[in-house]
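SAMPLE LOG
Freezer: B-3
Tube label: C17
Construct: single chain, 555 aa
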Amino acid sequence: MKLNDLQDLIVNAAGNLHGKFSDWTSQPGRELSHFPKNVPLIQIGSIKTKQVFNNKVRPYINVQFLGFPEKQIPAELIPMLVLNSHYDNKVRTTPHQRDNIEIKVSGDYQKIPSDKRISIVLQAGNIKAAIPCLELARTLFLHNVHLTRTALRPNGLRGMANVDRSGKETIIKFHKMSDYPLTNLSSHSACQHLRWLLLNPDAKKSFNSIYQCLRQGEQRNWLFNFTPPPLKDWRFSFAGQYDSADPTLFHVEEIKRVYTPYFSYDKKVSIFHPNKKELIPIEPTNGRRPEVNRSDPDPLLDFKATPALNRKHDVVSEDGFRFVCGTNNDVKVLPGADQTRVIPNINMDKTPTPDTSGVGHGTAAGSAQELDWAINRADDEDNPLEEPEEAAPTDNFQIFERVIKRLMALDDYTHISTQCLSMPIPNNGSQIYKNKATHLPRTYHCAYFSYQDLPLVIIEVDISDLNDKHKLGSRLFGFSESGKKGLMQVMKACAEKGVHWDAVVNKSHCSIVVEIKHPFRTKKVDGKTVCRTNSEYEDAWVEALRRAVENASPR
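STRUCTURE (predicted):
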């Protein structure tokens, strides 16, 4: 096919969808407050800059949803934008049918402009894949709101971090004022991408070309453009559809996987972020721990809301996309300075107050949470969860062990193992997973057994260092997959929820979930409250476990 013919096909494909809905198009300029719920995004348009209240210049991007006029949203939201996607607050879905292909690029790319967008065409044998330029940049570089802001700033990557190559290992050092989210440093995938971005010359040059193209455009409304790195021998997984007139041309709607060629770097790489802290829980000096209410687990994203300083971030990590760097070398995140903190009690009984999250930096006048939205941050099967690590048995474990031993002596029970394990490190920065007395990961007790050939697990988390207001009963689990994998998922979620069980995660990984309430340490005798002996307490615990197991088992 001649280049002119290919260009005509791609330009027509880019224009057909927009032309089909042109009756709804109005002059851009008005800002959108929220994503329209569950209607497709049919057009991602030009980027324009606008002076905001603090005299800063902020980029916006024009978007259009089916049945709605074209409007503006902050350009930091580019990581969320994929053509034909539906949105429900911060959740993006693609309910329509698409074809999926995987290719290995066999030659140089071609760039095809149109009045609606610029496309990059990749060749893989007989197949040509036409990718919207913005979608390629989104999946190569613009994985989160911070990297998107960085790409549209004059100083680019230089304003985010510098690379210190003077020692035996290379250290990526974020600047003191950098707002690169600390949540990314808990993700293996995000750290590997950062290593590639800052140490691979081709990647760095391509990233910085985004702002260079913005300057060269010299237009108030700029169609996104950049210079991709050399892409020969890269592999991609695409979702989209084949061209109706040319079965060898595939129109890419979304990139699902990116596999880079092997990138060789001869030094170990570490990352240093000056704002990273190692929080050490301490007791309040007055003996009274503050109490806070639960925060809204799903704030409403409002594009016009202003985030507040020193508020928690609204962290959202979208699954489904992976950027796989061709390297066997790991990246180490250097520990931060110790910071002591009194951990408040969380009032789990009160219904959370509805909240909002906004886009941009926090200000003194703001009130919303700051959106921290990202792709390539939810590590998946390519980066396995932390293996359960055995810990030294505690006094509480010895009690648990005796109780389990007595339970296993009953009919129809077969004991497999009883372990004392360490809580996994959460990815969201929660520090409740640490024991306040030892400052080490708290322990949990795990008993594997079967009842009438049904494999089950009882888990008891040691929260003896926390006050009585922190409630966490034992749980009986029947995992719907590998017991070890299910255990890792459940305990990771528990650690990230501030050492509270995550009902959604438990349900998704378990076929059986039963709450087991601890017996009281006291009992009533002749109308008076008296303390149970240790033996009486263990009797009551064995009975509570027995009832939970036998009630959960099919008759």
